[in-house]
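#data-curation
PF: Archiving a pair of folding outputs for the training set. Convention for this channel: one message per protein, sequence first, structure tokens after, nothing in between. First:
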Amino acid sequence: MLPAMTSEQKSRCTRALAIAIGLASPVCYLVLAHTHGRLNRMWFMVDLDVYRWSGMPVVSTKRLYTAKYSGFLSFTYTPFAAVLFAPLHLVNLRVLRWGSALANLGALFFSIDVVTKHSGGDSRLSSSARRDVCWLLFAVCVWMEPVQQTLRFGQVNLFLMVAMLADLTRPEDSRWRGAFVGIAAGIKLTPAIFLLFLIVSGQRRDARRGIAAAALTVIVGWLLLPRASYAFWIQHRFAQSSRVGSIRFVANQSTYGAIARMMGGRFAVPSLYFSVAAAVLVLGMSQAVRIHRSGHVVPALCWCGFTGLLVSPISWSHHWVWVVPFIAWAAMRAMQRRCGAALLALGTAATFAAWPMRGATSITMPYGVIWLTQRADRLGRTWSVSWLTENLYVLVALTVMVVFELWQRIGPSLGSRITGNDLLDAAQERDSSQM
């Protein structure tokens, strides 16, 4: 009869199992991606190719925003981003692609690690147990559709997200808090909504640092790439969403994209979009501020990220990587035996997961539910199903926001204000910990 395992031995076995599961998940992805890489299905990385191309001296200095990579892809980031991408053209393309995949996976794990440290989870959870949870969450989040698309295209979304998470989860008296948000906004304009969040949430000192950092990136871009900077900032190339791609394409999971797909160009879509976007911006930002003031930093940042994705004219599905910290936060809350948080984590993961589907080439690969319409036309779907799947991310995010607002308004009559619920109860936790 085998002797009983000690608690230390059980802990080591649990840790080894969690690490094995955590490593097996990305290894499976890399093997699958490499297998189908020659078919340009999971190893396309065309965005990484554009980054590499934009850093070439001739392109950067003379025709950064007029030339097109391979004749059809435009560079849409800031001149400062092109400066940062300059060294990439010196790296072998195969090495660069493998490096991008591994670096993105590292950023994914680090973002989960940051969230689990600041999630307000069970204080009884030891450091080693928290790290085990990180590995398990990492194994799951590798197969989220936004993460899959980020890896497939060689995107920078995970890098920008982890920079902002690491920046804004630091103590509010940190000397450089907010600077990384400004630098992220100086690379890609969409993170600028976090500067607005810092302002409206009363974090004015951090907002000033972020704005100063963003301004510094603009100055660097002007000094090194004056012609490109003139085209981007003065000739308003940054506002030309048509340079990015088709608004109606299913991958554009923004309110603008959803409205364009539903209206089919029959009405004045831009005017309707501006009205809806303004309402969503006010609603989302006010909710993010309330969540932050209750003491929950991570969900407030996720809420801000979701709001930015909804109001932006173009929000490709790979931009929705903010579901990763949201799932990680909800999972940590679920460990406090909170049924609502567990359902929230499972529901979010199921919605944004990359499920195995067989495409037109008869090759089974992971795709998000939003691609179901394009992958299953032969099933004779109805318009209602198409409308739901094509706009799933937008509809889910808007529904959660509306339910959140109704919950807060109806809560007082039920004797359950939002600050007493799973989502916003940090104040109560602090009081109980001080007793």
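PF: Second:
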Amino acid sequence: MERKKMTGLLGIFFLFMAGFTVLSHAADSFGIARVSVKTMENQVITHQVKGTGKTEGLKEEAIFVEEEQKVEKVWVREGQKVTKGELLIQLDLNTLEETISRQEREKKKLQAAIEAAAENAETEKKKQELAYERAQEDYQQAVENGEIDLANAQQEVDLAYEKLNNFYAEEEAALEEQEGQDPQTQEDALLEEIRTKEEAYNQAVEKRNQEVQEAQRAMEDAQLPITRDSTIETSRQDLQQVEEKLEKLQVLKQKKGKITSPAEGVICGLNVKTGGVTALEAAVSLAVSEGGVQFIMQIKEEDRKYVEPGQEAVIEADNGEREVAGCKVKQIRENKEDPALFDVYLEVPAKEMEISETGEAVIQKESQAYQTCIPLSALNEEQGRYFVYVAEEEESVMGKEMVVRKVNVTVIEKNESYAALTEGALTSDQKIIVNSNKEIQEGSRVRIQENE
């Protein structure tokens, strides 16, 4: 009886022990992290650069309106599509009429000024011609008078010498006739007379030369060109400008002050508003549809190295419902507003997109193939160094278990999905932990989920 009782108690004990073992394994299983693992694989690291943007026209046309015209109404807004001949701006007709009247008065004023200046120029020309004729006459008269004065002076000199010669030839007779006069005194008197006459001759020469020179200079001065009146040329230029402006205003009047679109396109700039006044700058800037479009996107500075001119790109338009392929990178520029961004200009195939259409562009750049690639989710970073967790099998009192080991690695290249590692840190068959349902660290026990 006692033996049967002990056997029953022993059975109950082993039954409880088995239950506790099951519960212990269940509790241990509940506390162990479940992980997904992968081995290294061969991959080509592809860098995908994305950026939103908008198309703009390659050909812009500036629409100018005569300045100082009051704007009655602006019929369009920036970004609006317009057709050829569509009304853009309506000008105030009263202001237009006043401007035309003012320009016509200015035209008459300038014409009168030009006529008056032309008459004055003609009068000055006649005065110059008359002055030249008189200068010529004065010159001839000075030459003639000078020759006469020289001839008379020369005659006086000759007569004085003749008297002296007669004195020497008839000295004795002269002495008898002039009693009491010393012959030496008479000779001196005749020599003095010669000197006086010669001096008078030299003065006549000097006077003649001076008068002729003055007359010649006066004649030369009369031949100088008349100073051109620049006001005539200026007035003619002003008149031409007034006539050109008046012609444009008359055309505006014929069109009843309506400014229309010269071509189909999109309004990309407006410098006027209803009730405002037009200025020298273009009133409207129009991106012409027939000129084609380009797509401008922004990328981050760190993505700049993956984008080069000539690369192909794809644009997802209409909120991703339409794909525009065959686009190419045309140029890359620094963004003027944000130095951390770059503007990328893409060529868009003809008629694939319209002006001001938005979308997201995708540019891909493939690097070389690597045999040591791991999912990016497996890569960890600590104090600027990369590492991965691997699951390794170990023997324990509970039997064989999977334990976490930490392995430092060096990254060659990575993208948003994969990282390529330098060879040697990991073997091709090591189980690299890519996901875990709980936080793990080196030495943690884990359980590998199957079919992951």
